[in-house]
Records
---
Amino acid sequence: MTASQNWPECRNTPRDVQTRLLLINPRFPESFWSFRWAIDSVLPNKRTVNPPLGLATVAALSPADWQIEIIDENIESIPLKPAADIIGVCGMGVQFRRQKELLSYYRGLGYYVVAGGSYASLCPERYDTLADTVVAGEAEYIWKEFCRDYEAGNPRGLYQEKGVVSLEDSPTPRFDLLKLSRYTNISLQFSRGCPFRCEFCDIIVMFGRKPRTKSCEQVGRELDALRALGAHNVFFVDDNFIGDKNIAKKLLRHLADYQRENDYQFQFGTEASLNLAQDEELLTLLPEANFAWVFIGIESPDEESLKETKKFQNTREDILTSVRQIYAHGLDIFAGFIIGFDNDTLSTFDRQYRFIVDSGIQVAMVGLLTALPKTPLYERLEAEGRLLPGADGTDNTSVGTNFVPKQIEYDTLVREYKRLYQRLLQPSAIAARIQNKMRYMRNPHHQPLYPMRTLLGIMAKFAWRGVLKGGPRRMLQFARTLATARLPQIPLVFSDWIAALSMKEFAERHLLIRKHNAQTATAAHIDKLRNSFRSYVQQGRVRIQMEQGNISLRLQGFVDSAFYRKASRAIHDLLDNTTSTVTLHVEDFHEEQRQHWNRLLHRLRRDGDRIYVSASEKLKDLLEVDSSVFHLVLEPAA
Ligand code: SF4
C-alpha cells in the first residue's frame, strides 16, 4: 500500500547484521506553517519546510555500528513492513495523533517501538501503553543509555532526563541521513532554554530558564557538514537565540568570520525575543553574519495582555518602534500573535489587525491562546475550573481552544478569528503590509539563494499561478507593491507575496469554507454523490455514508474507469464546498484498476490532507498510497 516494497520483510529472522534502527517523523496536520501552496505550486522540488533535526541528533547518538534510516512522513511515505529491529517515532503535540497511530501499528506488528520527541518529554505518562520504551527529555545521555540496555537485552520502559544536559555533549547531527534537498530550510540548533517566563510557554518547562549553548567550534563543525551537503538556507531553531546575549554575540562574530571564509554560503534565520530591538550591537552583528530574518513572539499589541501573560520583555518600549528598529537593520520579521487572553475583548481583533498591517509583518501567525499541559497557564486555568473536558491542547493548529475564554464567548472568538484572517489576506491588506514594511526596511538582507534560471522559473510560476489567477484586484495590488519598491527590495516583495498567498490558500481551504451551514451542505453533497453513483450503489459495489462530518466511500465491488473519473470531480466539489473529510475504504481491488486508482489519487493530491485511505489487510500490498500526501489509516494488527 506504500513505498514499502523495497524493504524486505526479514524482521525476527536470524541474521548477522547490526541492530537496525528506523526513526520516523510523523506527518504534521496541515497549517499556516506548511506553506503548502508555495511548496506545491512555486518552489521547485520541495516537499516541506524543516527537516527533523531531533532525529538526526538521535541517529548521531546511536552506536556507530547500527544501521539507521530516517523517514520523514512529511516528505515521503512510511514503510508498512520495514526491515528494522527498533522503530523510534518522535512527535510534538500537534503530531501526537499520528505518532500514536504509528506506534500502535508497528507495535501491533511486533516491532520494538520507542516514543520520543517534545510531547513525550512533556507528558511521558500519555505513552505508557503505546510504546515499549519512552524517551522523555533531552536525548544526549538517556538515548545512549537506552542503546546500551537494548544491546544488553534489558531496556527499560522509561528513560527520563532529570538532570541538566550540556550542549557541548551534543554530537553533530547525522545530516547525511536527511533528504536535505526536499526542505526549504535546514535546521540547526545553537542553544536551548529561555530566560523569560511567558505563562503559556512549554519551552521553559522542558528546557529551563537558563540558556545552554553549544560552542562556536561545534556550530562551525555542523556548518561544515551542511556545506559539504550543499545546504544554503539555515534556520537556527533555538527557543530564543539571544537568551544569553553575550554568548550569542560571541557566536555571531564567529559566524561572520565563517561566512567570510566560505563565500557567504549560508543565509540564516532564527527565533529571538523582542528585546533584540533594544540591543544595537546584536542588530549589527546579525546581518554581518548573514541573518536575514527573525521569528519573534509579539503575541499582542495590548500591554495589559502582555503583562497578564508575563511577557514583560515586550513591554519595554512601543512594539511598533521595536519592529521598525529591527527592519532598519535589514532584518525581516516573522511573528506570532495570540488572541484569547483574559484581558482580550472583541476590540482586540481590530487592534491586532491594525497592528499587523501597520507593522508590515506578512508572516503573521495568529493563534488562539491554548493551554499546553504542564504550563503555568494550564495550571491556573485548571485551578479556575476553566479547562474544557477532552480538549488536551495538543493540536494548536485547529481553530479553537481548550478553555473557556473570559470576556469573549467561545463561538464569537472562533468566528472573529476567522474574520481576522479573512481581512489580513485581502490583496489590499497584503499590499499595505509590504509597503509599510519597505518604508522602514530600505535594504533587506533577504536574498534568494536559487540560481538565476531557477529564480526565473519561480517568478514565472508565481506570476501565472499566484498573480494572474488571482484576478484584477490582486494584479493591481501586486503591481502597486512592485511600483513602489526599490530594486534591492524586489526579492522580498516576491517572497512576501508568495508567503501571503500560501497562507491565503490554506485559510480558504481550511478556515473560510464558503458554505455557512456546513452540515446542511454536507448532507446535500451526500445526496449528490448517491445520485451520481446510483448504479454502483444499487449493485452493492459502492456504499456511501456520513459519519460525524466525514463522508465515507466504501468500494466493496469492482468499479470501472468511469467511476474513478466521476469520483475525482465529485470529491473535489464536496471538499471545496463543505468542511467534511472523505474516507476511501477499499475492500475490493483488482490489478487492472491500478492505473485508474493512481490517476484518481493524483487528481486528489491537492486535497490530500482531507482524504483518508483505508484498505483491507489483503489489499495493503497491492495499493499504492503516499502517506505524506493522504492520511493512510493504520489499523493496529488484530
Ligand atoms: S520568550 Fe518565547 S521561549 Fe521565552 S518564555 Fe516566552 S514564549 Fe517561551
---
Amino acid sequence: MSMISVTLPDGSTNEYAAGITAGEIVIDIEGQKHDCVAAMVDGSEKDFSAILESDCSVEGISGFTDDGIHILRHSAAHLLAQAVTLIYPDAKPTIGPAIERGFYYDFADLDDFGESDLKAVQKKMHELARRNVTVERVECSEDELGEMFADNPYKMEIIKDKLEDGHGSTIYRQGDWYDLCLGPHVHSTSKLMHVRLTSVSSAFWRGDQSREQLTRIYGIVEPTKESLKSTMSAIEEAKKRDHRKLGKDLQLFHVDEEVGQGLILWTPRGATIRTCLQNFISEHLTRQGYQQVYTPHIGKLDLYRTSGHFPYYQDSQYPPLVEKDMMIKLANEGCTCGELANMMTAGDIEGYMLKPMNCPHHIKIYSSQARSYRDLPLRFAEFGTVYRWEQSGEISGMTRVRGFTQDDAHLFVTENQIAGEVLGCIELVQVIFEALGMDDYRVRVGLRDSDSSKYVGESEKWELAEDACRAAASSLGINWSEEPGEAAFYGPKIDFVVKDVIGREWQLGTVQVDYNLPERFDLQYKGSDGEMHRPVMIHRAPFGSMERFCGVLIEHFAGKFPTWLAPTQIHVLTISEKQVQYGQDIAAKLKSAGVRVELDDGDHTIGKKIRMHRKFQPAYMLILGDDETTNNTVSIRARNGDQRAGIDFETFLDELLGEINSKVAVPSLVPSEE
Ligand SMILES: [Zn+2]
Ligand SMILES: [Zn+2]
C-alpha cells in the first residue's frame, strides 16, 4: 500500500494510506465531535469525500469560520430547493447562492407562494436534515448534464453560458435530488439541522427586468442551535430598527409614488436631523479650510463627454434632457426615440443631464481662474444633489435611492500635498463618528492589482498616492486593511465601513485620489518654478450621502437620537388645565433659548399624553403639575421612564443647553435608576 505524507494544521506531518478521504483526516485531527463542514486541502476547499492520492496539507473548515458558514449556507440552499421541489413538483430551481446573512434560492413556476407557505417547506427541510442523507459529488459529461436538466431551461441556460463546448461539470446529489454545482458542500444533510426560512420576495431571472419573474425564498442557517438563536434575535432587533419602519413611525421622511420611486421627501422632523448634521459637518469643514460652493442640478452633455460620464455610464443615469427648440424641431421631423438617443450619443445634438456627480461642476470653478501653487490646496465643498438611475428592484428606503445629496468635496492639490489632505479627510470622519458614538469602524485602502495596464497615470505617481493612503490610514490608530485590486482605474481610494450597535457593517463613503479628471479637463497651476503643472484631485464624500447616512443613523440610534439631533428635543406636558399658563411660559422660554420644543396643554390624562408623545422619542418630556407651577420647577422624564422631579427650571435649562452644545451621544440629564 502506498503512503502519502500529510501536513497537519500544527505543522507536523502524518503518514496515511493513499486513497484516504479528506474527511477521514479531519476526523483524525479533530476527533468525531468536530464542527467542520469541509476540508482545506493545499489551500483549496474540498468536500470530505475528496480522495487524497499524493502529499498535501489538510485542515478542517469549521462551520464557525467565514469559509465554513458560506459552505453551510450554500448547502442549505440546496436543501431548500430539494424541499420545494418535493412539495411543488412543477417549481424549477434556478440559482441559489450563499449571501451575507444566509442564503436564498430563486424558483420559476412557483407562483402564489407566500410567507404562509414557508413553514411547510421548512418542516420538509428539517425532515430531510434528520434523515442524514449523504451529499455526493458526481462528475458529469456535457451530454449527461443536458439529459439531467432537460426540463429546466434555466439550468440549461447556465450550462450553455458557463461551460465551454465539450466540457463537463459536476452535480451534487442528495437522495433523488441533484443540482448543478461546483461545491464544495457538507457531506450530509444532518449538518443542516439549524435552518430557518425568513422571507419571500420576487426577483428577475439574471436580475434582468425583461426576463421571467421568479420567487425568491430567503433563509438562515447556523452550525448550532445557540448560534441560530442569537442570529434570529439579531434579525429581530434589526427589524425593529429598520429605518423604513422608524422613518414612518417618527415621521422623518416620506416616499411618494407620485413624486417618484427612490426620491426622498424630507419631512420637517427628518429635515431637522439633516440640517443639524450638515451644520456640524460644515463647521468642521470650515475649520479644515474648506470653501463652500453651490452648483446647479444639471449640466450640458458636453461637460459629461469631457468627464467621461456620458455616454459610457448612461445605464446608471436618467436619460438626458433635450433643449426645447431642438425637441420641437425633431418632433416636427418625425424623429424616433432611438434616433434621438443615437444623435445624442454621437454628439450631434446638445442636451442636458441631471448631474450624476458634482466633480465636473467643481472642476469648472477651479478652472474659472488662473491658479498658482500658492492657491493649493483648494478645497471646494458642497452638499451636492446628484441623480442616478437605480433599477426599481434595488431601491430601498433611504439607503438605495435615485436622488441623493452627497457630503461632497473636491480638493485640488499638488502631488506633495496628497498625504496631508487624505489624512485631513480621515480625521474629519473620526471627529464625526466619535461625536455620534460610532466608535467601531474601519477603513479599507483600495490599491492597484498586479495587472497595471488598466490604470491611468504613471506608476511612480501611483506608488506615491498609495503610500499616502497607507500612511494616513496607519497614522490614526484605526483598524484598516489593504485591498489590492480595489482601486479605481484613476487612483487609489479609502472606504469607510462602520459597525452599528447590533454588529452590522455599513459601507459609507470614500476618499478617492484622481489623476484622470485633471488630465481630461487639462487643469493646471503655475508652480514655484514658473512652469505649468497638473494638480491632483481628491474626491471625498466620507458619509456617502445625507440620505444614506441618516438612514444608517436612524438604525444606529433606533430612533433615539442624541439631544442635539432629536427632531423635537423637549415635549412639555401639563397634568391639568391649571398648568396651561405655566406650560406655555416654559415652552416659550425653551423656544427662545433655541430649543426645539413641543407643548401639549390639551385635555388628555397625563398617562395618555405620555404614551402619545413617547413615540416621537423626544430627548426628554417635562411633566408639569401643581408643585412644579408653584415652585417654578420641572419634572424631567427620560425615554426609559425614569424621572427627576423638582428641578429648578433655570438649572434644567443650563444643563440642557450644556448637553446640546457638547453633543453628548446619549441624553443623560436623568440619572439611571438601575
Ligand atoms: Zn451548490
Ligand atoms: Zn467627485
---
Amino acid sequence: MLRGAALRVTRPRVAVLNAVHAHPHADTDSIIGAVRRELPKVSHQAVYNSLHALTAAGLVRRIQPAGSVARYESRVGDNHHHVVCRSCGLVADVDCAAGEAPCLTASDDNGFSIDEAEVVYWGQCPACSTADNS
Ligand SMILES: [Zn+2]
Ligand SMILES: [Zn+2]
C-alpha cells in the first residue's frame, strides 16, 4: 500500500498503518500504544509524522467528531459516515444511504461547486442506552 502511494516504506509507517487497520477509529494515544507493542522504541513524533504522511497520501482517513480528539481509520474513499455515542464517545461506521458524495443536495449552493456533505449521526450506543434505563 505504501509503495502504491509512492511513500517510502519505513518501519514506523508500516507499524502505524497496521495499527490503524487493526483499531478502526483509534485516537493518537491508542495508536502509539499499539505501535509500541511492535516497535517499543518508536517516538511520539515518528507516529505523528507517519499518521500525517499516511493521511496526506490518502491511505488513512482522519475524522474528528465535535468534542473528540482526532481519530484515524483505514477505510477510505467510500464516503461512509459515522455514528457517535454522546455518552462514551464510541464511533461506528454507517454506510452512506445515498451511495456517493455529496449525499445531500443543498437547498441553495450559493454558487459553490459542492463535493461533500459531512454527515455525523449522534445518539447513544447500545451499552449506554441500557445503562441509562436501568
Ligand atoms: Zn456509549
Ligand atoms: Zn469509519
